[in-house]
């Protein structure tokens, strides 16, 4: 029933991977483990990007990566830097040869891609003292004299709000990269960076296969942090700190995931179906490229048989710049439950139209339940081709906005959730049933008559047709509205040209 | 190399089909001929709906149906009626038991379906004296006193025009169908119907398989006429007087085809991908159902491998109520050349948005050349998903409008045609190259910003994306404008976001 | 929620189909009913082939055809004949004009097609007195002097057995068809056929759409009988007395189905994917054509989205010549339960390798349970691509053989069945789990090393690979063997190269 | 029409890539060039693995990488080593920190995978002095005393032959890799390695995208050499020194390609469709996994629309260990012409069943013509699913065997070739036409009755069916046999059950 490989900080990759003679790196185990095998990682900090080399075979013949029971295992995308030189005041600098970063230097890589609207060009690098992340300054001067704001703009609501953690804004860095070296300037204030745990992020991911199709892998019980992940719009490659990269049947459970520059867990698309072509080619609307991703994905096997069906449960995800969980297309038929997600995009270093605690596109038959989502600029955003999706028993609080449902024909079901934000709901879709929710804040309903999106055969990725969002055809039953805000545009009308009973509607989703 | 079966009017279906012992019916031959065989039909009138029972195997191992060399063979959808009783004046009546019609009684079947806008409910029946068709009257009174108009509306141009043949309007019929009998009243004027060749149409088709997938069949050298074909919009089953019914690789050549109630040759879609659901269900726009047909067709194999690639050449087609040649989806990769098409929809008994000498949807990589098209209310209409299509060296004259290109992203090529109508061109598409044409009449160009249509991988039915028609990105070179009318909205701009050279453009189409 | 149409023997097809003004024929209702509508048929015998013209839309928006509650509704494929002339002794003859039969004359149509091995060329006609079917004689002489056998060969077991009903063999007919007439001679013994209910079968089917894609139809509460159905091997068109003809989501329930010349209920394939090409073309093995049907079907949408998912329950099916239930490809994801099936192929007028109470090919994820199957030459035959199939709690008795599982890679599950035949089981497959069955008779296990068959992605029609049957890798637990016969070749070994736990195995099937 | 980027040895990656301010690395240009752009590389040696980051858009809107006109540009997978220490005699050693190799150390990576039969476990490293490659020794002792053989086994013909270059065998290396260092021992004989151009291979590839779908790229005019490419069987990832990695529409022209450890140009498959699972899992035959790759590839878009259609022309390819050109599945619809291929697998360091000058699987509609192929252990091997393939006007000489055609149903065409080997032809297929060839040596014909392989719709990747190779059905016309050897098993019989005319046959291929 499979081999058990062990990895430990006192191991060697020349060893045989037994408990007695463990490997040193998780990647060594990842290169030998095949379907049915288990990789048990023992206590310690592993600074590597784990790239599974082989897939599992089925739900019962997986490859499992797990922290040894009762042991604390941390996988970090960062490296510790200890050669800081003091410059002036509390400003220090570190000079790092570019070879240190290999082909990917986060202090050179820019935040880039479709639908970034505020602060594109920020770098993917970060500096951490004792695990706390810094802000990137725009120039050396700002490092010396950090700008601490007392007001920031919430782009979603277009309101001025207090920053989430003003104290953090004092800690800033600025980097210069020349032909050979990367020089990082940082203001450490009272810390001596050479005496604290001072880290910079170096690797793009912590646990993410380079190749697609690495199916049926379980990742259990790790803490994973400090990856220099890029911006992940639905028209681009979507790597997260951890994720399956267009595979099927992953289980990501019992992990603590934090400080991903952009997205924490990605169950999104891969690169060949489109990679920021709007931004790169500037030749047609991003919306058109988004549509092309759907059909391009169809040609590389987007279907229940090939991708998705992931389980993401019992994870704690926080302090990510863009998304706690993200995913276009790859998220189909998945279950996301019992996760605790907070502090997403709340540092507000950059902004674009792809930010939320959970942001999914084409979440066909995906179930999102029992999650706690708070302190996000937007809690949950379900965009495009929402069909057969159920959002149930989630608790939202202290978000600038709680729930956004966009350009979809449904059917979908929103039940037993608690939405407490001032701005509770944006509904730019149709075919939804909202039942037994407790809703406090404002709700907005909009038609989308200028954008067609696909709808699908029931419980399938097969495209059945294309429609704009006429709006309406929603069902509202038994919700408790406790807020004092307005209710806009909610009604019942026809979608797909027919109206069903509520009972039938719910069965359609649940089948 | 295959068996040769013979069919003759003195044959017997109990015979063996040899030249010495021929079959009596073409259908008998059709039930035994398999891939590689040839059916040779000898002189005479065959009143049957030929339904091929077996497909050919490939372009070289076909089943060929042909008229014996030098012999006149006619297949008719009609039966001769000789029991007319004189009623009053020149009005006669014939009483026919309903069993005579079997399951399909054209005098009861109504003109029905999506996009009929004028005179829905007309019946599919017709009466002919010596081959000349009558008009259907609205009641018995009109049979007694026929209404002969001197002016009729051309719906395309919204202009009053002279009727094509006012004399023909005097010949009218009206039918009543009860539980057991069909009674036809007709005004024969100076004719005694029992002494002339008086026929009524009875069968839906002359040569059309009941089942799809009857690939690689050749039909050569027949005259075929007087079928009670139904209205054939792109969202319905599209049977014509003759056609392959969602098969691949037919050759229809050297035939004379006329007096089809609606369409002559159909290379269109079959029924399971949609059948007038807008009209039947009244629940969403026909445009949505049209989009659904494209994806539904994809699921039943719409591709170069499975359907289309027909050759339609050297036929004479005239006196059809809707289309000389029609076809949605099934027309891909076909060649239509050297046909003579005239008097289409010129009787003006009914009207809808699916009428033209040739009306094709999704004519991907279809070549239309060297045809002569005249005396049609609209000459050539290419609608939706025009891509890789070439229209070359066709001659248009005496049409109310010559050419209509609609809601497509191209690329397509219109070259060396002669357009002589007052209303020469409607261009509601983009991505066209118009080269070396001689154009006399008015040209209109329109955007279509409210309707998305699919575009495809080059030379493929694979959907690549969806776009509205922004208009523009057309190329006009070396055309000779000889008319005195206005030129509206022609320009050059971007489509799909980029502009190519003309040379590249044409190669894209021709590849 | 939809219109209710009524049909009654005192109705008129010129009526409006209300309860007060019902239609006369079910077909009239079938031509107007659209998704959501119900057709209620009132007491009486309906001699018509019901051909649904429109599909339902979904499991909740079906078209339902049902017998009015408490009323006896019979749909017959036969017509009553009352013009018998007495010839000599108890032999009578009826002369029928060929027009009576239309395009399909069962007394001329022959039993024909792939894998018929005994008595091909028998005709599809039949004669019934008071519902009891006759035997076809080989010539007039045998009509005069019927041959009553006391021993017949059971082809499955190659043993001589007693005929099922020797008395029935006395009742024989013989027919001659010339250019214009069909003459039937029959020996009625003591009956005067003009004074009894004497019928001949005329129509191919009782309830079967002519077109594919007529999804989501319910047929409930009818008795249907006496159809001249043709031989239905897996390489041909497979019409049954009733069936969906390559549609999705039918429910056939609470019906009594009997006296189908070949198959009763068909959930099989349609014609375009192959139609007896081995027999017609004689150019390569039937086995190759069978493989081609699988891939050809894939191209016309063979998938969970498009076909199958039928429910067949609570029907009584008996006295069919070939199969009680048959189906290649179209049977996927279906449930067949609580049916009572008996007297199938027990008249033994012909024989071929496609005969059983239930005969399914490619029954992916099909569930067969709680059926009672007895007095069949073979009870249940699952052939090719058995995967995810479960056979549970069925009772088999008085069959010549009970269960045959052939050329499949599994996994499949056979549990809680009672197999009582002398020849209980033929296992020419692998990957089966046999659990908690009670088995009395002989069991045979064979490898099939010369025939590759496809296996599929789990719970999908997507082909994953091809394999011969190495045999083995079966699991046997907790079965009770009560017979005295030998057990051949049963063991446990590897299939698909790996062995799973029983628990996992069963979950794989049940998922 | 696109940007022109320049790369030069005096450039900087911080520059802007203009001619005046060129980039330093080709990879920098590859990261910014988008569809329509051109990358011009100036004189010099570039030691990098070029990984295109963006695809072109179409055949006319490519990304072109080319050597500046008249300038010599070399891309090497190797690095120069100059710190050799003399040990004893002519043996030197170099100690290299493992970081030097990054994640891929060729001196640790083993030759591994399906169908290796001789010397698996050899390493992928190599040592070169002045461009000449060494042999790997089995231990240090063999470095000191190299084994120079005078006879070697040709595995194809099972004959003892003279080694290709005995002198080369004296130059040997042996490496040891520990936790931190790689130590290479080599016998340089009269050379002082620190004074010559001494290189070791380091990188897997010279020009190969890491991601699939990098379509429409041209690579022109480079010399590329010394890559540590792995073994590339049809069931694995198939990287070559250069190749498109499952993309469409590459042009590889006018290059000099040599010293690839395994394969030179790869137009083969990517990793997710299978990666040596037979070797890794040991659970079922490699042949089964090979079949699974075909269906798995179908699911990720194996089709004319998505992959293949490459042009490989005017290249010189030599000194590769496994293949000059290799490719399973990705090679469809490609043209391979006017290449000069020699010295492939002639060093004989290892052997397996995937070695040839050109080795293609599933070369549907691929054209191979005007190539010169000599001094290979096997010249051209076309394996599995050969259909629509044409091999024309190629010249074969000094190969141990010239042409091998295996387990295919055809049709394919072999015309106007000159085959001069003692062992001219292995024909384990059917459906071939051999016309106008000049053939000198032995020809062997075999049936393959135990292995089914797919055949396809004409000019398509759609699977039509599966068949074993019955053999026969070949056509031989107008060939000139000039040898003295036997002719075995050549005949004409049926394939796919029918025989066509030669004319039709050739048209089928050429269409």
Characterization of this structure:
4 copies of one chain form a homotetramer. Chain A is mainly beta. Among the domains of chain A are: 78-201, Golgi alpha-mannosidase II (Immunoglobulin-like, Sandwich), CATH 2.60.40; 203-419, Single-stranded right-handed beta-helix, Pectin lyase-like (Pectate Lyase C-like), CATH 2.160.20. Chain A is built from 5 helices and 45 strands. In chain A, the strands form 8 sheets. Chain A has a 12-stranded parallel β-sheet, with helices on both faces. An 11-stranded parallel β-sheet of chain A has the order 3-5-19-21-24-27-31-34-37-40-45, with no helix packed on it. A 7-stranded parallel β-sheet of chain A has the order 22-25-29-32-35-38-41, with no helix packed on it. The first copy, chain A, is globular, with a radius of gyration of 23 Å. Chains in contact: A-B, A-C, A-D, B-C, B-D, C-D. The A-B interface holds A 281, 283-284, 288, 291-292, 295-296, 299, 449-450, 452, 462-467, 494, 496-498 and B 281, 283-284, 288, 291-292, 295-296, 299, 449-450, 452, 462-467, 494, 496-498.
